[in-house]
Amino acid sequence: MAIQATARRPVRFTPGSLRERHVRLRAPFSLRCGAILIDYVILISILALSTLVARMLGGGARSAGSSSETLGILMMLIVAFLDLGLFPGLKGLTIGKWATGLRIERPGETEVGIGRAMLRHFVGYPLSLLTLGLGFLVAAVNARGLTLHDVIAGTVVVRDVPTFTETN
What we know:
Helix content: 55-70%
Oligomer: single chain
Order of helices and strands: EHHHEHHHE
Distance between the termini: 36 Å
Number of strands: 3
Strand content: 5-15%
Mean pLDDT: 82
Shape: globular
Low-confidence stretches: none
Number of domains: 1
Strand order of the largest sheet: 1-3-2
Largest sheet: 3 strands, antiparallel
């Protein structure tokens, strides 16, 4: 019995024939670690730069050195408020989450809210650290990928993966 080959017509996609939709998947633990690392590198680099400037201005200008350290600490606190409180509350993104393609969401809703973002980052993160980091490591073994600070704030971290479907 001979098998006949059927001729396949090549599929041609026109700009209007595809529709993009996003599928939200659980954020991988490695990407979450990378995102938090980026956020903290930014904060620590501000502090390190201000300390370097303070040491360079040291010696006879001790008051200039201490004021630049104070300015660096103040700048770090402002950037921490913006990056860990305001941006996630409004857009669900920190700089690290944006760089790694992750987003903070509430289940069933899109916006986290500034209060919930503050609770997540300024109360939940220290509690996750106080448990010797176990609050973070729970995401590696949890089926839903939730950390202690996610549970406290009622949030979830997702990764948007674009998929394309034909509209015809």
